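As a representative case, the lines below give one protein's residues and fold tokens.
***
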Amino acid sequence: MTGLLRKAMLFACCGVLAASYAMAAIPSPADSDIPCGINLVTTVSGAADPHPFGTVTIVVRDVAQNPIPGSSVVIDFDACVGPSSASDIRLCSAQPHPGVTATCTSPVGEISAVTDGSGSVVLRVVGASQGGPAATTAAGINCATVYADGINLGTINVGTFDMDSGGGLLNDASVWKQDYIASINPPFPVNGRGDFDCSGVLLNDLSVWFTVYNASIGLTATCASFCP
């Protein structure tokens, strides 16, 4: 009887340890780090990697704040549509930054990457905006959702330096200006594509755009093809 009791206790302890290990590997939204937003960028002539102004880092941790290596991180952009349900944000179907993959789904798509040994993933995502009228086609603030192993870590804003899908940054300041005018004339909401600093208002963002523009002389087209 004593032997059976010992075995039962051993199995119970093993079960508790297994459950604890399983819980430890589950991403915790409260303990993980996501950026306030991600700005989609273009690529630089002669360089394979996207422009560094779009660099963001996501760190996935469990409830004990231990980093989770090998976690599958996904940013879902499918809610990035305007009031008329027209697609606003456009992802490039091929993502040149190492480890970043685009999956084209309707209406926008998603990108994915896997965390390294420190539970971190560094992203640069190439894409643009349709540049349509602010009142009908532009997506609002925080339209993208970040997942780690299927767990919702929160929403983030999506800015686009190429605001008209024209390739490079040539006429995009005019799109930002129309978004700004719309944002100060209710009932139009603030459009996320021009909120590069995640402030929730379009105030200092044009200066951010010009900084990127001045550092981006010689940009190629944003990408060869966008997700449909």
Summary: The two ends are 68 Å apart (CA to CA). The beta strands are 37-40, 56-59, 72-76, 89-91, 101-103, 110-114, 120-123, 127-129, 144-148, 151-160.
